[in-house]
Amino acid sequence: MAPSGDLAWWIRLRGAGRIFLRTHGGAEAIQEQSVAGANPQWDWHVLSISAPSVFGQAWLEVSVAEGEVQMDLILLAAGQWPREWPGNGLRIPAEHFFHAGYAEADGSGVVLRRAHDPDIELFYGPRMPLPGGAYSVEIEFTADAPEGAEVARFGIRQPAAGVQEWAPLRAGAPARLVASPESNLPVVIALKYNRTHDLKIHAVTITPLANPESGEAGP
User: Fold this and answer.
1) pLDDT reported for residue 6
2) How far is residue 32's CA from residue 50's CA, in Å, rounded to a whole number?
3) Concatenated DSSP letters of 124-169
4) C-beta of residue 110 within 8 angstroms of C-beta of residue 122
5) Does the pLDDT value for residue 213 go beyond 70?
6) Residues 81 and 128 sit within 8 Å (Cβ to Cβ)
7) Average pLDDT, the chain
8) Considering only CA atoms, which of 143, 151, 137, 127 is closest in space to residue 204?
9) Is the dihedral of CA 48, 54, 60, 65 positive or negative?
10) Residue 3's pLDDT is what?
11) Residue 196 and residue 210: Cα distance in Å, rounded?
12) Residue 214: Cβ within 10 Å count
């Protein structure tokens, strides 16, 4: 665990009861917390945690304090991920995703080069949950390629399920698809590079849709 001021446990629970959590950093307990669940459906609970003073190993101890509670997933996250999705969408800079290639020092994007990077899935994230509903997912990019040339494909998946549809990235054209995650499990937006041309990914924008058929954004 790295020293950071915005760390949090994301815990997916269902049932009625309370769990007790103890966060350990090395041999010492950093923080003790509890969370109550009262929902028969899977729901996320977010608990901010105190960061360790230095980088090192950390682990989480969990026990049921009362009632009957099921837990199937715990995420350790840094940064401010919204619980309620903003109606005008969220633009995520490319360097915040897991990626090969390199990130520009000025924060303008992630660069994939055909002479260095393989033709595999090498840009993916955020591995965080989305509220239920339909979303437009758009990748902002530029490519050293003729207009209309395909430089990559991207799609969306959740745990235990593959990508249902791959959408192309074509030079000079918008790269956008509409997706409706089947649950509130973490979502992965994945890109497969094809190594035909150099590619620079600037950002990924996720926007809720009020009307998935028309692509109309939410309120």
Assistant:
1) 84
2) 10
3) EEEEEE--SSEEEEEEEEEESS-TT-EEEEEEEE-TT---S--EEE
4) no
5) no
6) yes
7) 90
8) 137
9) negative
10) 72
11) 36
12) 8
In percent, the amount of the chain with pLDDT more than 90 equals 71
| Phi-psi domain of 107 (left: phi exceeds 0; alpha: psi -120 through 50; beta: other) | left
Residue 20 in contact with residue 32, Cβ under 8 Å?
yes
- Evaluate whether 64 touches 38 at the Cβ level (below 8 Å): no
On the question of pLDDT at 4 being above 90, the answer is no
**CA-CA-CA-CA dihedral for 38, 75, 46, 21, to nearest 10:** 70
Residue pair 159/186 in contact by the 8 Å Cβ criterion: yes
Are 14 and 41 contacting, i.e. CB atoms less than 8 angstroms apart? yes
Token look-up 């430089």 returns 151
User: For residues 78 and 151, what is the distance between their CA atoms, to the nearest angstrom?
Assistant: 31
Cβ atoms of 121 and 180 within 8 Å: the answer is: no
pLDDT in tens, 115-148: 999 999 999 999 999 998 999 999 999 999 999 9
Query: What is the Cα–Cα distance from 53 to 104, expressed in whole angstroms?
Result: 29
- Flag whether pLDDT at 72 surpasses 80: yes
Cβ–Cβ under 8 Å, residues 17 and 62: no
In order of their start, the domains of the chain are 7-78 (2.60.40), 90-217 (2.60.120.260)
